[in-house]
Amino acid sequence: MEQHLISVDLGGSKVVVAMGRLSLSGEIIVVDAVSKPMEGFTRGEVTNIEHVTSAIREAITELEARQGVKVDNVWVGVSGRHIVCADNSGFVYVGGSDGEITDRDVEKLHENMNNVQAPDGKVILSRIPQNYKVDANETIGSPVGRFGRRLETTFSFVLGGKVALERIGKAFQRAGVAGTHYIAGAIASAEVVASEEEKESGVIVIDLGAGSTDLCVIQNKVVRYVASIPVGSAAINNDIRSTAIPAGMIEKLKTKCGYAIASAIPADKLNSSIRINSRSPHQKNKEITYRDLTTIINARMLDIVDLVNSEIRSSGYHNRLPSGIILTGGGSRLAGVDVLFKEHTGYDVRLGGAESDISAESMEGTSAPELATAIGLLSIGIAESGIAPTEYTRNEVATPEAEEEQGEKVVDSVVQQPEVTKPTKEEKRGSKREKAPKRPDGGEGKKGGRWLRWLNDVVFGGDVVDDEMQ
Predict the structure, then answer these.
(1) Which CATH architecture has domain 84-160?
(2) Do residues 445 and 436 lie in contact, with contact meaning Cβ atoms separated by under 8 Å?
(3) Cα–Cα distance, 102 to 8 (Å, whole number)
(4) Residues 162-189 pLDDT 10s
(5) Phi and psi at residue 352, in whole multiples of 5°?
(6) Which of these, 156, 186, 319, 321, could form a disulfide with 202 (CB 3.0-4.6 Å)?
(7) In 212-355, at which residue ranges do the beta strands (DSSP E only) sit?
(8) pTM attached to this predicted model
């Protein structure tokens, strides 16, 4: 039996490959992860298979070399406009003469629903029981033990585009990976970002990615609705590009100096300008004010918020979500994005990364929002694959930062830290929330050690000093 599982998060600008195990106490051990830039993957669909295959192969090869494993099967998070959610209902007549509903009645009902076929051009990714009705009376939880003649259920089917998935599968096959299991990225993120209490009361998890914005509604610990909006934070980059900012500086400018809403700009910067130094002696330096940059960002973010509001209303659960919104994904690092969502949705909003059931043996930095989908895939995949729990001792792995100091080749990989005393689940959850940075430069939280400093450099492109970008 396998003792580890590999997950892959395909994003609009990068691919993240993670390796996980199951601890003896039943928690997820995030052993290692590798992040590589990726092109040719737009809004959840392969547009250049050579580029996508190359990025996947590079990330997987590095993980294999670091961990001494061979990757044959992976659990893949998918998103994009081809991901949709649809409900379907079915029923059975209760088998017992006295009308008592048994496990066998429920199993028979589920067998019927499992035989439901996907519509043309679609593939069923998940079949999720929503509720049960006994003689047309709705019941919460298991109907076993109740009395009635007709047992009915509604399943929510998460569907993916057949062509889109086939192209993704082809890229993995070319990269040497034979088996792929697909999960909607929104479900994966929500699995580890939301607490059990939030899942019970009702919560929306929104993953702000580069190419898409994924949304998952959970209530009574059941996934109620999934959507993928084909607009992400990369659209902001396109808007900034129209101001003639050099393409290579846009992401750094956005993440280091940008704000999602004007009220988040510090007073001393409100009327200040950011200078982007030219890399050529024949070109002039560029300047843009914090206010103008924020205006550009805010306009695109408001478009995304409007689409999110529309999806929340479509879910039918807009008035049953007292735990509000959790923002995760790389786009959640944009300063003031939580304030923007709160003002324009009316929900309480918090920022989050992977927090639920993550073992202390895991590498440092698991709460980084960029890793939420990859870690959520590990959690789901391990639960469904029957991965055996094992005793695991973490090994020290050289950091990219250390390798650079030694003059060696810098690699894009997540760092594992020395063994620590395992805290209680509540202590761990509290500490992770403290560590999760609210913005790239640390903001109101801590950076999370060497690994998060490295992540900031890789994703956001280095430091900005005195409002001047080199």
Answers:
(1) 2-Layer Sandwich (3.30)
(2) yes
(3) 39
(4) 999 999 999 999 999 999 999 999 999 9
(5) -155, 155
(6) 321
(7) 213-219, 222-229, 273-276, 286-289, 325-328, 349-351
(8) 0.83
